[in-house]
Amino acid sequence: MADSTTMRTLNPPKTLKPKFQILSSIPHFTTTIKSNSKKFSTICLSTMADQNQRRELSKPPLSLDALVNAPRKEDLFAAIRGSFPNRLSETDLQLTVPGLKSKTRGKVRDIYDSGEYLVLVTTDRQSAFDRILASIPFKGQVLNQTSLWWFDNTQHITPNAVVLAPDENVTIARKCSVFPVEFVVRGFVTGSTDTSLWTVYKRGVRNYCGNALPEGLVKNQKLPANILTPTTKAADHDVPVTPDEIIRSGLMTQADYEEASRKALSLFEYGQCVAREHGLILVDTKYEFGKGRDGSILLIDEVHTPDSSRYWIAHSYEERFQNGLEPENVDKEFLRLWFKEHCDPYKDKVLPDAPEELVCELAWRYIFLYETITKSEFKIPSTEEPIHDRISRKVAQALSSL
């Protein structure tokens, strides 16, 4: 999936039923969106608006103040600070779980080969600039559970590789042939990394990954339409690439690329609809796909998490944009900016330690985003059993049952 190198048109509307076991704390979401329409996003937005207009008018809009001063924040901050010694920075399940053949260490996930399946453990490692910046309490659990929620709620758009989730930090997935391409979808001109759209745009690039960009765009401006900017995996970083280059180099067939592209754009439109319903803007994200043994294209990796996506608060966006201010964000961008202000994260061999307060704030924002999107309460894990022992036990039980 995201860190592993091994892993149509829309279906008619239907009531979603999970195809895989998920943790009981992850809610189930149903939809009757006409996903086979070319006006997918318009229908999605109008449907959600009709269903939620009265409810939304009766409550205050989501704001950064709600994020900073939420009553729940103080209690969670205490749990976050208390969990620093128990952060999951590394796993070695190949030593504790029978049947696991090998381990691949990604930026965030540890991936284990069990023969027929892959066991993906989402750790608390925080990556950016192609490096590990810190270890964020509860991050692995938040990312895994957020992805599972989205996997379950996007089956009307595409099938996925998930089989089961035996632990808060673990997903077991079907093996598939992973396309060596990340499908990055963008709705705004923004970002701070070398491959971000704003970074390349301000350098004068006007054709990026096969997309013609108009003159006169400014940072954080909404694009005329969502665009796809694929990247390929290199040894230590992602490389922007055009669709023609993907086809010519044999990374994907034209048919596979076109299908995966349609799925990526539809997933993003749907994600934008759900985010907007909850007072957020899904700014950009990335998807990965693989081909199953039956030839079907499957969604893999994480989906719409604060690690793979950028979220802004919708209510304040327009006013702040008009005044030249940065949007209020609920993702890891503020941590990226802190490192850019205090070092050269691409060149410095040793990076400064992220301040504890920033680490706690990022942990809280990840939890806040999970609770806002899923409308469910994040469950603080018990510390009675060491986390590595807990994961080992549950993974062993799950594999023996498959």
TrEMBL record:
PANTHER family: PHOSPHORIBOSYLAMINOIMIDAZOLE-SUCCINOCARBOXAMIDE SYNTHASE. HAMAP family: SAICAR_synth (MF_00137). GO terms for molecular function: ATP binding; phosphoribosylaminoimidazolesuccinocarboxamide synthase activity. Pathway: Purine metabolism; IMP biosynthesis via de novo pathway; 5-amino-1-(5-phospho-D-ribosyl)imidazole-4-carboxamide from 5-amino-1-(5-phospho-D-ribosyl)imidazole-4-carboxylate: step 1/2. Its EC number is 6.3.2.6. It catalyses: 5-amino-1-(5-phospho-D-ribosyl)imidazole-4-carboxylate + L-aspartate + ATP = (2S)-2-[5-amino-1-(5-phospho-beta-D-ribosyl)imidazole-4-carboxamido]succinate + ADP + phosphate + 2 H(+). Residues 104-350 form the SAICAR synthetase/ADE2 N-terminal domain. It is an enzyme of class 6 (ligase). It comes from the Eukaryota. This is Phosphoribosylaminoimidazole-succinocarboxamide synthase, chloroplastic. Belongs to the SAICAR synthetase family.
